[in-house]
Amino acid sequence: MQVSDTPFYWELDTKSSDIDSHRRISITRYSTVVPFDFNNILSTFSNNILKRNDDFGCIGINEYNDSNIHVMMAKVHKNGFKSPKFNELDAFLSVDNFRIKVISATIHIDHFSDENSRLNLLVFNKGNIGKNRLFATYRRLFDISSLEQMKFDERVVRELCFEKFSDRLYEINIDSTNCPDYGVQTVDYKSNNTVIIKEAEKINEIKEKKEIKITGFKSFIISKCDDLKENYNVKFSIDSVSGTIVLEFPKLSWSDSETKNEKEIENDFYNYARKIYNEIINVSGIKILDTAQKDLALWVPNDYEW
């Protein structure tokens, strides 16, 4: 059936409907035992662009300085709906069923080399694409039998919490198994129910007692981007056990939204997220993307969904 045979008026929407909306995105790093081969990664994705009958695949590739490949992948969903059909007198004749394919979610993956020249992935996910689907794709394309999720070193999380973001903490998460007296109800140490008062006695005790394990915290960072009209306050949370950083974006206003299509702005958004990620884990002027994270147990395809 051709588009002209349907009872619908089709109009290309040149403006995005959701690029300025609030978004919550998780960022997690994985390591592999596969050598980082820039040309192989680039050619593999170039030869496996999303096809008509695929439900998941690559829709965008960007390369940076022969050291990083950024890939956008999309999940395709079939939507079904019914429409009345009319005769030449505009009287009801029958009901027609239609199905249309739409992109229901996107996920972005940065491919880069670790200190041992192995392929690492930094995955940006809005939560709509499961881990199993991503795993199956890399197993099929690169024969990767397992991905190894990374986590942050607790010492680094502690430094970020009590040094870099000490004056803008919303929450502090503590492993109270070995320090039961320090299961902090952070709301008791907040000023006007906003950020934690860092001078509070119990907060200072937690800071001084190195044996108290900090499993994560929630804070915010003010970040700018050339493609945005202003600086934004972006909330984030760090989970040292899973190695995940979750960013919570306010409504964003892009300076060139009238001249760029939605895919281009989508790329700008993820580049902005990567910039914020790097800014968060930058300690004492040194990026700790590699050294701040260490191995977490191997996961298998059926463990869980993001």
Can you describe what's shown?
The protein has helices spanning 38-46, 131-142, 154-164, 201-208, 262-280, and strands spanning 23-35, 56-64, 68-86, 92-113, 118-125, 148-152, 171-175, 190-191, 195-196, 213-223, 232-239, 244-249, 282-283, 286-287, 293-298. 24% of the residues are buried. The radius of gyration is 23 Å and the shape is globular. The chain has 306 residues and is of the alpha+beta class. The protein has one domain.
Low-confidence parts: 16-20, 184-188, 285-306
Shape: globular
- SSE string, helix = H, strand = E? EHEEEEHEHEEEHEEEHEEE
Please give the domain count.
1
* Rg, alpha carbons: 23 Å
Overall residue-averaged pLDDT value: 78
CA-CA gap between termini: 38 Å
Residues in helix, %: 10-25%
* Main sheet characteristics: 11 strands, antiparallel
Strand content: 35-45%
* Class by SSE composition: alpha+beta
Query: Count of helices?
Result: 5
State the total count of DSSP E strands. Answer: 15
Record the SSE blueprint.
Layout: E1 23-35, H1 38-46, E2 56-64, E3 68-86, E4 92-113, E5 118-125, H2 131-142, E6 148-152, H3 154-164, E7 171-175, E8 190-191, E9 195-196, H4 201-208, E10 213-223, E11 232-239, E12 244-249, H5 262-280, E13 282-283, E14 286-287, E15 293-298
Antiparallel strand pairs: 1-5, 1-6, 1-12, 2-3, 3-4, 4-5, 6-15, 7-10, 8-9, 10-11, 11-12, 13-14
Quickly list its features.
alpha+beta, two-stranded antiparallel ribbon, 19% helix, globular
